[in-house]
Design a protein that fits this description.
Elements (H helix, E strand, L loop, with lengths): L1 E3 L3 E2 H10 L5 E6 L4 E4 L4 H10 L7 E6 L9 E2 L20 H14 E2 L1
Parallel strand pairs: 2-7
Antiparallel strand pairs: 1-4, 3-4, 3-5, 5-6
Length: 113
């Protein structure tokens, strides 16, 4: 598991993917602090790490990153941690387009393609 606070290259992400799931890495993005944790077996572990570092639950969103996919397909909004009816999110995806856009913005800031 790695905390990303400064930009990394897509090549670094590819190496992480090869060493874990093969073609993707799990990530949890804090849309307020503009950081993310990548490369754990479960989004819940990444979420727990960020919560312990002071992140607020409502700012944490889980995604899968496929570094070899085209830029318009490489972010998959699918995680059990996203299922939060109390925050208005009723699926494993991210239902709110504005939140999706914020997640994408943070990822683009932190991963240079």
């Amino acid at each position: 598991m790695k905390l990303i606070e400064q930009a990394i290259t897509i090549e670094v992400l590819k190496q992480m993917a090869e060493q874990s799931f093969g073609d993707f890495v799990k990530a949890v993005v804090d849309i307020e602090q503009r950081i993310m944790v990548v490369d754990a077996m479960m989004h819940a572990d990444e979420e727990k790490y960020l919560l312990e570092k002071g992140s607020a639950q409502e700012n944490l969103w889980g995604v899968n990153l496929y570094p070899d996919f085209e830029e318009d397909r490489w972010i998959e909004f699918d995680s059990m941690i996203n299922l939060r009816p109390s925050f208005g999110n009723n699926t494993r995806s991210i239902d709110d387009k504005k939140i999706q856009d914020r997640v994408i913005e943070v990822i683009k800031q932190l991963v240079k393609r």
